[in-house]
Amino acid sequence: MEPLKPARRKVKKDNRNTTGYLFISPFLLGFFTLTIFPILYSLYLSFTDYDLMGTPSWIGLDNYVRMFTDDPTFWKSMKVTFFYAGIAVPIRLVFALLVAMALNKIVEMVGLYRTLLYLPSVVGGSIAVSIMWRQLFGNDGAVNSILGALGLPTHSWLGDPDTAIWTLIVLYGWQFGSSMLIFLAGLRNIPKTYYEASSVDGAGPVKQFFIITIPLLTPVILFNTIMQVIQGFMAFTPSFVVTNGGPVNSTLLYVLYMYQRAFEYFDMGYASAMAWVMLVIIAIFTALIFKSSPHWVHYESDTK
Amino acid sequence: MKNKKWKKIVQHTVMIVFTLIMIYPLVWMVSSSLKESSSVFVDAHSLIPEGWHFENYITGWKGFGGISFSTFFINSAIISVVATIGSILSSTLIAYGFARVKFAGKNIWFVCMMLTMMLPFEMVMIPQYIMFNKFNWIDTYLPLILPTFFGIPFFIFLIMQFIRTIPTELDEAAKIDGCNSFQIFYRIIVPLIVPAMMTSAIFSFYWRWDDFMGPLIYLSTPEKYPVSLALKLFSDPNSVTNWGAMFAMSTLSIVPIFVIFFLFQRYIVDGISTSGLKS
């Protein structure tokens, strides 16, 4: 397969190489200075004791040992995060899918509904929303006020360790907008003829949902799941602003605890070790989801 | 026939009730910003204030510690606009390189970029902080702005998907006319991918405007705070007494997001839908 005119080809190819690398040079610069180097540096720090003063001192695996054997708060934050991500992510996805399906059925005013339902997600990242949530679920906030007006018992939502985490889960679920839009686009791509054909064969809406909608949406479900799992594990602002980890650490999400270790106790080595544990967990989850995907994700090109 | 009509009425009633519940918290925030401070939490659920207390906005705007919200809004605007320009310029260049130029090692770098997209910021937060601390960049905007000039993987990916829909015949024709890659890029491609650049710019602006963790870590002088950080300070549950003013500033802080959303809705919705599907 060696080409006949190697010299000429080489010159041309080199030229393209220079052009290509010129275009992606900002990425390369950032990749090495802001990703690769920090990651390696973080790995090194995780084996040290470092408080930002002086130089990091090597302590081997001590941070990891301390984390797993001598830090109940670490385990607490891990538990809280798994609970939070494990419940909030499925809630958001199921919610997003159901609403998208409802919107897909409606013809009139669909733009208006879509816009209004997407609004919570548009402003979702803002601090104002977290502050609002804190007041909404506060003792004299609107939620209790509504319950009271309906004659139902009120509750100290943020003060009770059993319910505080649920306020954060509801906040996460409430912002289902972008997942909804992605699902909606996926639903629009399913040919109507599939439904028509199956209803001729006598399939009802429930059966159609399981044999047409879900299988054809699986690529979108895969994408949404991976993005949401990472986001769920990495949540910070809601727990920092709404509850600040309390009461009694019942909402201490992993990243909040990592933040406290790094920027309140200046325990940089320990916080770096925490970051690595999190990365490994996320990598395992992502890998599991990808690995399992051939069994449940259907690409249309496969079936044809 | 009648059945169908009833079905429609039920459908819309359910949809309207559901939508109202979903946007209730936002309406509640706006309405609380117009209530008299002492009455915000009396009948907290009611949406209609007794008397319209627009003066909450005036008192709130005065801010705290002698710094008014004009300073915070200007700070946010500077950070968001410069960072957005940076991310779009760099991301567009990089996207073109990946989408249209053939070069050795391209696939490896592309995989690296996709992996970076999935890597949470929290992973590099601590080492980056130490690094910027060594550069004496703490309490400046550099750590918040400079990284955006190296491209944002999500935008690179989004713009790439868009470039792929442009027929390569256009590039070929331009090449025959004597254009080099850079000329093809800014004369042919850039004008055609403006919608994708817009979508990215809108997202970038949102993210920067809302960004809380970055300023929280890097900024320590209140005069330099963006709105997000100032609002957190302003709303500290232990010190707030003027709830009306607090809600007024919360409401104002999301106004820029609302305005951009309503102006460019079409781009955002299309952007999300397409970027999500073609991965």
TrEMBL record, chain A:
Matching Gene3D superfamilies: MetI-like
Membrane topology, from the record: Multi-pass membrane protein
InterPro entries the record matches: ABC_transporter_permease, MetI-like, MetI-like_sf
Subcellular location per the Swiss-Prot or TrEMBL entry: Cell membrane
Main localization, broad class: membrane
Entry keyword set: Cell membrane, Membrane, Transmembrane, Transmembrane helix, Transport
Pfam families: BPD_transp_1
Protein name: ABC transporter permease subunit
Record organism: Sediminibacillus dalangtanensis
Automatic annotation (TrEMBL), chain B:
Alphabetical list of Gene3D superfamilies matching this protein: MetI-like
UniProt record similarity statement: Belongs to the binding-protein-dependent transport system permease family.
Protein name: ABC transporter permease subunit
Residues annotated as domain ABC transmembrane type-1: 73-264
A family per Pfam: BPD_transp_1
Source species, domain of life: Bacteria
UniProt keyword terms in alphabetical order: Cell membrane, Membrane, Transmembrane, Transmembrane helix, Transport
Organism for this UniProt entry: Sediminibacillus dalangtanensis
Keyword Transmembrane helix: yes
Residue ranges crossing the lipid bilayer per the database entry: 12-31, 72-96, 108-130, 142-163, 184-207, 243-264
SUPFAM superfamilies listed in its UniProt record: MetI-like
Lineage: Bacteria, Bacillati, Bacillota, Bacilli, Bacillales
Membrane topology (UniProt): Multi-pass membrane protein
Subcellular location: Cell membrane
